[in-house]
Amino acid sequence: MAKITLDNLAHSYLPNPGSEDDFALKELNHDWEDGAAYALLGSSGCGKSTLLNIISGLLQPSQGRILFNDRDVTHQATAERNIAQVFQFPVVYDTMTVRDNLAFPLRNRGNDEAYIAERVQEIGRMIDMEDMLDRKARGLTADAKQKISLGRGMVRKDVNALLFDEPLTVIDPHMKWELRTQLKKLHHEFGHTMIYVTHDQTEALTFADKVVVMYDGRVVQIGTPDELFERPEHTFVGYFIGSPGMNVIPAKVEGRTAYVEGSEVPLGAGYGPLEGKVELGVRPEFVRLSADEGLPVKVRRVEDVGRHKIIRAEFFGSDINIIAGEDDVVGADMNRVVFDPAHVNVYANDWRVQGAAA
């Protein structure tokens, strides 16, 4: 297990980067705790896999250092870092049995055969392949092969870190839930440092102690699921986390009041002068329809999703989403929305501004 330190780290795939825009991974300075489970979350091309490959040693960074427990491993080969990595598509030895695939990392390090047999049986049970251990990997389905890859990554107890690069892409939905549960159980039992790359917010939020949200090659927020939901530090975090994501609306802010298209919106805190692009961010859970107060909107449709209703509305060309209770009545005269002041975030140039309490 290891604390992982990213020291002045950045990477460009260009030989002579001339500006920040040339970097696929922009400068990072972070300490990731020993034994914690992290998820790297973001859309395709945001730099998640680049960062993971630098941590694993598959890629040398353009600048900066990687440290494991304060030991510089920047130029060490992958094998010397004592990590296990599971990739998006299954990597297995087709000519070997499932048992021998799982045993390979342990045999490669000279472990005792009795221990290997016990550990392989345990992992086989964990990935629900105990009755397939003596089958050849050739001919197995893609999701079965990926379970072998996952099992091979988890079979060693002494690794510094376990790295997962979108490992459940080819797994069926029910098995995804089971494997995420097993990964969390493994983490709680053995305390490995785990880093899990995904573009799926559900995977990230249900797996990780802390989620690292990336956007355009930059880490924009590291936090618990609650922190990402309640206080998105960047508008992308608000948009990407939640279903639907956070409403973002251009505004002018003066003190404890925001002005939106001539209407006043009360705020839960006071703000000084703000420069640049100023916006309000409020999650659909903290918006309600009204017949006589708030911002004027045009309700376009109501989607009943069982546990609640999602109301899609429009405000001067901007979309506004509202989450209402399953039993809430949506009247024809309800054409205004009200925001809960305590849950309105203010952003300047996409970054959250801390307000002053009264």
Which features does this protein show?
single chain; 358 residues; Rossmann fold; OB fold (Dihydrolipoamide Acetyltransferase, E2P); 2 domains; four-stranded antiparallel β-sheet
Describe the structure.
With 358 residues, the chain is an alpha+beta fold. It folds into two domains: 4-240, P-loop containing nucleotide triphosphate hydrolases (Rossmann fold, 3-Layer(aba) Sandwich), CATH 3.40.50.300; 247-352, OB fold (Dihydrolipoamide Acetyltransferase, E2P), CATH 2.40.50.140. The protein is built from eight helices and 22 strands. It has helices at residues 48-56, 98-108, 113-126, 142-154, 173-190, 201-207, 225-230, 235-240; strands at residues 4-11, 25-32, 37-41, 63-68, 71-72, 83-86, 161-165, 193-198, 210-215, 218-223, 247-250, 252-260, 263-271, 278-282, 287-290, 295-296, 298-304, 308-315, 318-325, 336-339, 345-348, 351-352. The strands form six sheets. The chain has a six-stranded mixed beta sheet, sandwiched between helices. It is globular, with a radius of gyration of 24 Å. The chain starts with a strand and ends in a 6-residue tail after the last strand. Keywords: ATP-binding, Cell membrane, Membrane, Nucleotide-binding, Transport. It comes from Roseivivax lentus. Belongs to the ABC transporter superfamily. One of its GO terms (molecular function) is ATP binding. One of its GO terms (cellular component) is ATP-binding cassette (ABC) transporter complex, substrate-binding subunit-containing.
